[in-house]
Design goal:
Order of helices and strands: EHHEEHEHHE
Helix content: 40-55%
Shape: globular
Number of strands: 5
Strand order of the largest sheet: 3-2-4-1-5
Structural class: alpha/beta
Strand content: 15-25%
């Protein structure tokens, strides 16, 4: 369900273990937005995690790969922008899917590397 390279905003970084635990129990916390890679296009999308309560997800269990967690929609949008900027700076392209796949492989290769957390600072928020 969660990508090994996980992006968080400052608010979700404070209690991400609790949030992740709730996700695994299918108790999706109110107001938390998820950043995911689209299965079809590979684009980064974001939406309120309450959408996981829809019948489709319950019946199929076909959850998208979660690459980030944000406290609200504006924070999620800001994180998408920063992730694309990071991808472009590292690869010269905006292919986030390939970039994250490569980062995941690096983390998997390390025997002690379960997850790598990146916290994006939020501009203009308190």
């Amino acid at each position: 369900m969660f990508c090994r390279q996980l992006y968080l905003d400052e608010q979700t970084s404070k209690n991400y273990k609790s949030i992740c635990s709730k996700f695994h129990k299918q108790n999706y916390p109110s107001g938390i937005y998820v950043l995911v890679l689209s299965n079809i296009s590979g684009r980064v999308e974001y939406f309120d995690c309450k959408e996981f309560k829809q019948k489709y997800y319950k019946e199929t269990g076909n959850f998208p790969l979660i690459i980030g967690l944000a406290k609200n929609a504006s924070s999620a949008m800001n994180m998408v922008q920063k992730l694309i900027e990071e991808t472009y700076a590292a690869t010269g392209t905006a292919d986030v899917k390939s970039y994250l796949k490569e980062k995941n492989e690096e983390i998997k290769a390390k025997k002690n590397g379960i997850y790598k957390i990146t916290v994006f600072e939020q501009e203009g928020e308190e």
